[in-house]
Request: fold
Amino acid sequence: MSSLVNILLQGVLLGALYALFAMGQSLVFGVMRLTNTAHGDFIVLLVFVLFVLTNWAHIPLWAAVPLLIAIAFGAGYAVQYTILNRVSGRDPLPSLVVTFGLSIVIQNVLQEVFSADPRSLATGGFESMSVALPGGIALGLLPLLTLAVTVAATLGLQWLFGHTPLGRAFRATSDDREIVQLMGVSPRRTFALAMSIAFVLIALAATLYAMRTAVSPSDGPALLLYAFEAVIIGGMGSFWGTFLGGIALGIAQQAGFYFDPGWGIWLGHVLFLALLTVRPQGLLPKTA
Amino acid sequence: MPVILETHGLTAFYGDFQALFGIDVTVNRGEVIALIGSNGAGKSTFLKALAGLLRAPAQQIVYKGEPVGGMAAARIVGKGIALVPEGRRLFASLSVEENLLLGAYCSRPGRWRLDTVYALFPVLKERRHHPATALSGGQQQMVALGRALMSNPELLMCDEISLGLAPVIVREIYAALPSIVADGMSAIVVEQDVQLARRVSKRFYCFQEGRVSLSGASAEVSDEAITQAYFGAVS
Reply:
């Protein structure tokens, strides 16, 4: 009984990180139907930007994270406005090719500059702190923080999309990018803002990921896979769906790890394929 | 009466296909203009060019003395030109009220706010939380018109408001027009129903194959002249 509870709790905590990976992907797909295959590499890239800020520029972590978020906001805007806007059309193929290219460029530049070695972020032992629950269950403080950040991000995105002028502009641009211009909304700028927000989510994910484990320049595609799986399990374009998708993936992996340490990642993929067969529209298919 | 909008030999293209061949239209402040003509005559193209959805040389469209041809559509609406597009084109994932609020995105000041639009079309207030595309055709057209009004335009352009609607609904919507333009707003109305178009407008332009084939005062022109300009050779 206690091990079942433990699998569920640890699965939720692991899944929260996957959900955070996926949140930016879900946002970008929902607003501009852009499938960003460089998403995982953007996470890794921002991890290395954080390394540069903390280890090379010696900025303390509490100051480096807000700085990273500001950099991410600007970088997201620039990437979308200068590059991805040119390929964000009705045809999904050009954007797939361009983001795939970006993925290769980012991986190779990072390897060239930082070598292939994995690096981790010094957190002063925070990553190994935990609270003990009855029944011998221990919950890590860092995973709990991750869960809190993910829930806050999901709530924030739901509020932004449902109750603000910008959110209305996002949804309307997704519906009809020609007519929305008649309302004074510039699709190019709206898309760039959506990517800015996606990059802020990526920055948060990158920070929590780097605090948790060592990261190497070629880790991006694996992260992209988790993000993809969470988005598709949850249902395209809905933030609570994406949240649920990440949690489901985390629980499946945690259950796999319980039976055999080699089974964790595998069982996650099995769940993904099973859901794709049984319920291809995802758990919560309605667009936010 | 001061001129609010003038086009000078306006041309427009869809790729290599030329749709407008030198259109000269003048709209005075507070005036309702009707554009009539058969399908494919260039009426919708003309409105799209004015709204900025189609590129045009700057000097060919002059609005309040400023050349605005080729300006981005998202900027045009901020200057006070609003288009009710053909086929309504409401945002499906937004509610009625959200569609209206999006119309106010450029936040131009004026008398059109949620409450004044709801006063004009009370049925929209009852259904304000419904998805916009779940409404009847006539109600959807009211949303499209209200959405354009929310930008507080000085020039309102309506593209085939009657398209696909029952005559009684069309009359109901057009009945709102006099009160809309009462405070000096100008309007360009594209309409298939020539009699209706003449009744609501002061002057008209008849388009044929991308050119103006006839223009004049709506009350004075003879039916024969319009028939000729609508179907026949350019006189």
Q: What stands out?
A: Residues 231 and 242 of chain A are 5 Å apart (CA to CA). The mean pLDDT of chain A is 92.
